[in-house]
Amino acid sequence: MIRKKKSVIRDWAESILVAFILAMVIRTFIVQAFKIPTGSMRMTLIEGDLILVNKFVYGAKIPFTGFRLPEFHQPKRGDVVVFIYPEDRDKDFIKRMIGLPGDTVEIKGGSIFVNDKPLEGDIFNRTYYYNQGPLGGTGEKIVVPQDSYFVLGDNSATSKDSRYWGFVPKKNLLGQAMVIYWPPKRIRLIK
């Protein structure tokens, strides 16, 4: 039995096709790169940072369907999340998770109170949170609806976040920001 040799062009085409399919699977279900365009998350993330986002942790979306893969865990308060902007589905935003479904959120004296207790820890203590925007005014307690989240930018003075446009529906979550991979002097895990 004599086997015909594959042509070099066919070998290259098959290799490129396999590489493309693998890249699409990884980008769709596992990890995706994003570039930070604004200073709304300063000093955690600054303009031009390139980050990797873990898409499978909250259950990656299956394209062209309304379904998601099973999640590894629910979003936690303090996670830095990427989501589809509720007012323009063509844009992705990045903010810090503050309010979970059913939580009562209040911004008072530069601090965030969730369920009448101040949020504590380095990530919350290093930021002064402003009462601005239609939601979250002085003395206003906001109840986060089921299947939704309340998110804020770390640079509270310049961030357009849930105080302006409301809640992030769970279906809009894309993933959790994991690491800054560029520029080299800023390589680190995102906390």
- The name of the CATH architecture is Ribbon
The biggest beta sheet is recorded as:
8 strands, antiparallel
- How far apart are the termini? 61 Å
CATH topology: Umud Fragment, subunit A
Helix content: 10-25%
- At the fourth level of CATH, the homologous superfamily is Umud Fragment, subunit A
Helices and strands, in N-to-C order?
A: HEEEEEEEHEEHEEE
CATH class: Mainly Beta
The oligomerization state is single chain
How would you describe this structure to a colleague?
The chain has 191 residues and is of the alpha+beta class. The protein has one domain: Umud Fragment, subunit A (Ribbon), CATH 2.10.109. Helix content is 16%, strand content 29%. It contains three helices and twelve strands; from the N terminus they run H-E-E-E-E-E-E-E-H-E-E-H-E-E-E. It has helices at 8-29, 122-125, 162-165, and strands at residues 31-35, 50-54, 80-84, 92-99, 104-108, 111-114, 117-118, 142-143, 148-152, 168-169, 173-182, 188-189. Strands 1, 2, 3, 4, 9, 10, 11 and 12 form an eight-stranded antiparallel β-sheet that branches. Strands 7-6-5-8 form a four-stranded antiparallel β-sheet, with no helix packed on it. A hairpin with a 2-residue loop joins strand 6 (111-114) and strand 7 (117-118). It is elongated and about 75 Å long. The termini are far apart.
